[in-house]
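User: Predict the complex.
Assistant: Input components as received:
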Amino acid sequence: MKRPESPQRAVFTRRALVMMAGQAGVLGVLAERLYSLQVKEGPKYAKMAMANRISTRQLAPARGRIVDRTGATLAGNKVNWRALLLPEQTSDLGLTLRRFSAIMPLDARDRARIERDMHRQRRFIPVVLHDFLTYDDMARIAVAAPDLPGVLIDVGTTRLYPQGGLLAHVVGYVAPAGEDDLAGNPLLALPGMRVGRAGLEAWFDTALQGHAGSVRMEVNSVGRVLGETDRQEGVPGAELQLALDLDLQQAVQRHLDGQSASAVVMDCRNGEVLAMVSNPSFDPSLFDSGVSAAQWQAWSVDPRTPLLNKAAAGLYPPGSTFKPAVALSALAAGTLSPHDRINCPGYLDVGGSRFHCWRKGGHGSLDLHGGIKNSCDVFFYEVARRTGMEAIADHAHQLGLGTAIDIELPHAREGLIPTPAWRRRHGHHWNGGDTIVSGIGQGYIQVTPLQLATYASRLASGRAVQPHLARSLGGAATAGRTPEHWPPLGIPDAQLGAIRAGMFAVVNDPGGTAPKARLPLGGVQMAGKTGSAQVRRVSRAAREGGHFDSSKLPWEYRPHALFIAFAPYDAPQYAVSVVIEHGNAAAEVAAPVARDIMMDTLRRDPANRATAPGQRVAAAG
Amino acid sequence: MISGRRLLRAPARGPLARLGRINWLYVLLICLLGGVGYAALYSAGGGAPQPYALPQTIRFGVGVLMMLTLAMLPPRLLMRLAWPLYGLSLVLLGLVLHVGHVGKGAERWIVIGGVQLQPSEFAKIALVLVLAAYFHRIRWERLANPLFLLPPAAMVLLPVALVLKEPNLGTGAITGLVGLSLFAAAGMRLWQMVALALPLPVLARLAYAHLHDYQRARITTFLHPEQDHLGAGYNIIQSKIALGSGGLWGQGYLHGTQGQLNFLPEKQTDFIFTMIAEEFGLVGGLSVIGLLVLLVLGGMLMALRARSQFGRLLALGIAMNFFLYCAVNLSMVMGVIPVGGVPLPLVSYGSSAMLTVMFGFGLLLSVYVHRDERLEARDPDGL
């Protein structure tokens, strides 16, 4: 006999059964969910799992070295142990940074930089916390590693300029990538990657950079590397070998020491730049870590412009060094023949103005040879007047003055040879007097010391050589290493010979303007030309008062002293240009410097000492 | 009727006889789940019994002894203990708010005699006991009067409010649902349920306004986990990745990449199921779910089998609590509901949850052992 169920139990049974159905249903739904996660969407999550445990890190390639013609390092790389932070692998950035700075103090500038990098970079690109760790530093960080998720120690390189300021203007410098660089190539944010900002570093930036490699590593969730699964080495940047001779560069620098000056030495046969010095200079490594405001201030108020590469970007009136170009244009135009004579009474009157010769009493009657040898102003006033500015400008350009030249420097200047057309473009009238003063390289004419060296090279070789700094890049020789590469200028030898003879007389003949430039070597002789470039017009009253002495002027008003030269005279190999700012007397100041530079050049004979492209000379890396 | 009662009562006498009446199949299922826990914690420990698997097994052994001891206690005694235990649980809940240890932004446990205790776990069992005792004495007919629902409603709301204040959203919700299930099983009328359900949306709005920031973050990251890969969404994403990479057959025991490489957060506690399903795949995951289904439905069947309303409600409450535990944990690791610190009972590492679940199973087994005993609606000794 079965006991009838109480209503209580009946309700309980009904509802419990409903609940059981619900429980089974819920767990069934969850089982279905598990099925869809594991089997239906399984492959998708499996891929994410792979990405989870495989971390790909980019490896910054070593930047290409820059070496001189003998293989000596001008820009190299220095090993740099540093602490990095991978933002994607730390959950609490602030905490990690606080803990890190308890071990390795970070100053306000570091913090600001880290903050900035964190914000602008992708989370998988590490941020440098601290550079140049010592062994002790690394040990301390390694001990604290469990508390520092995402912090890793890494070996990289930083740019090293063993020659300091000596080559700062030529080699340039590198700096961390800025916003604009990153927009083009986000990999530039990799620690150790640098962007060339000036000089050859900037010009050859892409080749020197190389290509980033990558390493794929199995990591755990706090970023601890458990093993490498795959490694693709980056391609290091190409090595750039220069035509420059470090020895000679040092010698030239010594000769310019203490001056605000620049000098360029070229192989006049093939255009190789053997030395290019701009004084004073700066320490290029300062740009890597960021230049302080005080340093900037000091550089920008210095009247001797240490940041400016005077050799390639300093603009000066050529002064009398321009006279050979004027003479060549007159010979080509037929307005002057080598034996025409012009009388110099000490002045020339043109259109109501009187133009003075530098020699108060005048030179009397002179032919071309005498005109150059004495650097007679009146002679060249007259030649310029006869020839006209357009023809002079054409020839000056042909000789490399006031025109763009193919030097591998991003900030090289073009300079200017003024013409009536140029004056008109700027809304001015060209006066006859403008042509007259241009005849002696004054007025609006502006050239660079590099152009002057090119000019001297072309006068000496008769070929349209272009100055160039590179000899080889990545082991491949760059073009233009033989004289035959450069086309002849097309100027008849007789005309060039007359000019060269005049320049020989300047240095070697009695009565020449630059006797101090004479080489004290038996058989080897140098030809040259002085130039004084006024930076301020000399007032008539001062000149006629007869007591004008530019050496008594304040430094910044004294004329620049210029000299161009080539040697040996009978078979020219080397060309030199020297510009000493406010050096006052070219013959007294610039000529001896040019002589000393030429002596050092001839003694070293850099053209005959060079290593094959790509070949390493036993040199400090 | 009388003869039937005598007949039914007879075999329950003597401890040995009662031991024989224990549902050993159910005990076996519990031990199976404990074994799953051991294997998973061994893997979570990096393939070693320390630091998780061995301590957990020792606790499990203690728990089994406690469970079997509790199974011997007669429901009469349990009913008498209901109120004192409930009172104790409220005291502990109040205490934890003042001297509790902070874990993840919430006060949740206190240490008594070196043992971490989560009063909220204990409170659920005490609540089930006290509700079962209450409804046992109220005749079904009288429940039509809502007045008789007010005392038990207060019994539910008091601990729920204290748990939410900790704040522990997950356990608070489970406590509330367990209480509700007892109301329904005891015979609450349908119209009463509807009337109760109506103001829920308003209450939900109010509740959200009082949530802690980290709880709101859980809800938002649950809705948009991809917005914050390394923040709060990390857990959900990593859990789903680990599950997905398990596939049908799994990556192999001790070879789950996400778990072994520590991408999986709290793999030894909340996310232990993920770890199992990564290493053993869908097959392993479904096996565990199957085991859970057997335990839940087995508990419910034992509830149906009991002759006293107290026993029925007690067993149902315990089974429901276990079910909700499992369902919330599984939903959480599969990204169905926001993550909420609810472990998988008997499998996840942790002493408090393990012991309270075993305590509950002990009560459940006691109901089964004494399934044929009838309890007087009015306890002669009074209460």
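Chain A is about 40% helix and 20% strand.
Let me know if you want any component modeled separately.
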